[in-house]
Amino acid sequence: MSEPLVSARNLVKRFGDFTAVDGIDFDVERGEAFGFLGPNGAGKTSTMRMIGAVSPVTSGELSVLGLDPNTRGVEIRSRIGVVPQLDTLDLELSVRENLVIYGRYFNMSRKTLEPRIKELLEFVRLAERRDDKVEPLSGGMKRRLTIARGLINDPDLLILDEPTTGLDPQARHALWDRLYGLKKRGVTQIITTHYMDEAEQLCDRLVIMDAGKIVDMGSPRELIQRHTRREVVELRFPSEVREVGEASVLANFDRVEVLPDRLLVSTDNGDEILTSLVDRGIHPESTLVRRSSLEDVFLRLTGRSLVD
Amino acid sequence: MSTASMRMFEAHARLYRKNWRASVFSSFLNPVLFLVAMGVSLGTLVDRAGGLGVPYLTFLAPGLLAATAMQTGVGEGAWPIMAGFKWRKSFHVAVTTPLEPLDVLLGTLAWAALRVLGVVVAYALVIAAFGAVALGPSLLSIGPAALTGAAFVAPVMAFTARAEKDTALSSLMRFGIVPLFLFSGTFFPITQLPVWVQPIAYVTPLWHGVELTRLVATGTPTTLAPWVNVLALIVFVIAGIAVAAPAFRRKLFI
What we know:
The structure holds 2 protein chains of 2 kinds.
Chain A: E1 6-15, E2 18-28, E3 33-37, H1 44-51, E4 59-64, H2 73-79, E5 80-83, H3 95-105, H4 110-123, H5 139-150, E6 157-161, H6 169-184, E7 188-193, H7 196-202, E8 205-210, E9 213-218, H8 220-227, E10 231-236, H9 242-252, E11 256-258, E12 263-267, H10 270-279, E13 286-291, H11 294-302
Parallel strand pairs in A: 3-7, 3-8, 5-6, 6-7
Antiparallel strand pairs in A: 1-2, 1-4, 8-9, 10-12, 10-13, 11-12
Chain B: H1 3-16, H2 20-49, H3 56-87, H4 90-94, H5 101-129, H6 135-140, H7 142-162, H8 167-183, H9 198-202, H10 205-218, H11 226-252
């Protein structure tokens, strides 16, 4: 097995008294899409910034492309691509000019830049908007342009911080499609997200972070198998009988998570649960049987739901 | 300047290409307005009273040249820096590439200095066109005036990089720059001020700049030796960079 592209041991980031990243270990292998899943404030962005060599490591070990980011930041940054959480495009410049300025930061010549820009704009489906100003572009287009910008130097590693936050479902799917295309080209990706479906769609492996620590690690399927059963039954009770209803569910089933508005019962067979509810005279207002997801894993691991 | 900081300079130039017309226009319009209003109109009254030894327009023009260099320098050290850190976040973008915070600082400083130089050249040409100062000395005074601008760019960049909120900038203008503009010998010799106030002028870069620019433009002798004025301005440039460098690093590499 080749050396991991990124490797962290007991990695810590502190801001004054606040510990944002609290001793984490992980390895990202070449060619994989590696995810950091967790709620806001879990330490994902701080970890990304350390990997991106724009945030000094407080303690522990971090190696990016075999280099120490605290001392070899310039080399690391010349070989990685970064897609920040918020679009930081120059709105008054054109699509093309945004890429030119960024490419020039990498000291790319005009000659190498022009064909590269053409290729990237085709890849992110913005070729027709090449000379348009950025300002009127949709959120999804801007994000795709930011991804093209992050790819300008043909990076060995692309870091995407919350790539689809704030996008509508259609734009999200278009973006996932492009990221999947990148994966097929062999670009290693590190993705942070607080969306379960995104982590399941995009990541080969992921870590679940909460309060600066890694709670668990594995492929989406492994994590679901390890922490939940195959299906989840969601039960809602009318508010006037909620307490009675919840009490009887808790008394009769194990693996129940209580949310403010509903109960989640983890099970290998959702229909069996529904039948036994009727047998026991428990009548929820509504029921829903669905497949388990990473959301359930997170809930199980931390006792909290991901979306605040 | 390293090649990396040259690339930051280039990014500023590319952005400037979008709105150069307005800025070139105002570079010529401002001196015309000021010289007409203050130099010619007010000057007629002042000259009637006498006492300056030279026409008021001639006295005023180099002072205005230095003061305009200051204002341009302050503007370039303030708004584009706040934009780079906060509004456009372009500095944060730049350091995700091989550029380091020091490259961002030096490239931006060099661009600001060029902007000051452009404004000063335009001003000097207008001054000569008004006949306030002959063309030769007017062009020569570009040097000290540009140095005056640089003596403001670097410290104001440091101030802006350390400022948490953009309101700090309007306070700087109101309580720092406006008093300097009025009381640094631009409009009247500081010997008109109470004796105990005069030494305050010695620690402000504008006063050194005005003295030096006036010397070159009109031959008016300086209060202190001219090399002291030059040295003072250079100290402001270096001190500004020395304070701005760690501030840029702290802000960009959190």
